[in-house]
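TICKET: design request
STATUS: open
ATTACHED STRUCTURE:
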């Protein structure tokens, strides 16, 4: 019998991720809280806009929502059918993954935590990195489907492991952003050519994804296009720090990064791209990182 796929949450990431699924040749159902987006997606990519009752009847159900709480609420109201696999691409909480995995498992549904990295451009190109936790057989069944939007799908361990890796990755990204902004501030105050300095760093050991592309594309040109909201990065940092706290890990840099990124209140952070966090540093130093 032909299998079907559903994608729930057509936001900055989900919109593009779901656009790659029709090439698999299976029916692809999409649902979004704002219905018009799902209808537009169907028109543009050959997916089918459906209601949630229909979406959760699919064999492979993707979700890409802001938080684990959003996913839990949705699953509680609309439980998926037995035999299906729920692939949660939200950057979520490991404890929630373990809870959902156990709860859905009682109804013969496999839950995989499968957060993604690679920004909206990676989602658009279908080259995302997927860090996957959960049942290994379910992972093997889902792999050909997930590969439609991924450049790398890495199985990282039992349920919750994918979310844990994603949280750590994003604290590292935040660290690189903040540290690079500090470095460029020092150099600008030294009257060094910031663009040339960045080029040197990108050919040296201080290079990172932030130095290589994000800093020039979003900060130095002052465009700060909102593709990944700052409040979502604040959430990811908190997930990482909660894990550290649960285990009593001694993580001074991660703690500092959390404090620095909390400088901008959540309501304001919802409206900003994550890179705009450097404005705090710019104000402290009265130095604008403009080139
Ligand atoms: P967006 O804010 O762009 O999209 C969120 C999506 O979730 C929208 O479709 C929104 O619907 C829907 N939504 C929000 N709240 C609810 C709810 N309570 N119930 C049902 N649907 C809801 O987020 P992103 O796409 O940027 O992020 C999604 C996830 O992916 C997050 O966990 C994020 O941390 C992660 N991520 C984001 C990256 C990025 O670069 N943006 C990169 C990697 C991971 P509506 O259209 O109605 O608002």
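STATUS: resolved
RESOLUTION: sequence designed for all positions
ATTACHED SEQUENCE:
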């Amino acid at each position: 019998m032909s299998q079907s796929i559903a994608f729930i949450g057509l936001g900055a990431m989900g919109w593009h991720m779901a656009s790659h699924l029709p090439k698999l040749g299976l029916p692809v159902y999409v649902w979004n809280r704002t219905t018009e987006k799902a209808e537009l997606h169907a028109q543009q990519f050959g997916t089918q806009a459906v209601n949630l009752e229909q979406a959760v009847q699919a064999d492979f159900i993707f979700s890409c929502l802001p938080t684990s709480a959003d996913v839990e609420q949705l699953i509680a109201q609309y439980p998926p059918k037995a035999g299906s696999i729920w692939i949660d691409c939200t950057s979520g909480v490991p404890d929630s993954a373990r809870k959902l995995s156990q709860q859905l498992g009682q109804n013969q549904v496999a839950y995989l935590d499968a957060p993604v990295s690679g920004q909206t451009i990676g989602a658009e190109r279908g080259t995302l990195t997927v860090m996957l936790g959960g049942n290994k057989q379910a992972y093997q069944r889902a792999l050909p489907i997930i590969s439609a939007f991924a450049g790398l799908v890495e199985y990282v361990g039992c349920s919750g492991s994918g979310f844990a890796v994603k949280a750590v990755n994003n604290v590292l990204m935040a660290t690189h952003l903040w540290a690079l902004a500090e470095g460029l501030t020092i150099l600008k105050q030294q009257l060094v050519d910031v663009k040339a300095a960045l080029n040197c760093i990108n050919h040296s050991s201080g290079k990172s994804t932030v130095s290589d592309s994000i800093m020039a594309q979003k900060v130095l040109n002052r465009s700060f296009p909102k593709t990944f909201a700052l409040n979502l990065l604040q959430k990811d940092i908190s997930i990482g720090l909660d894990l550290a706290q649960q285990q009593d890990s001694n993580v001074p840099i991660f703690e500092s990064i959390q404090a620095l990124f909390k400088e901008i209140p959540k309501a304001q952070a919802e409206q900003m791209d994550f890179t705009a966090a450097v404005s705090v540093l710019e104000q402290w130093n009265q130095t604008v990182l403009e080139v």
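CLOSING REMARK: The radius of gyration is 20 Å. Residues 98 and 159 are 5 Å apart (CA to CA).
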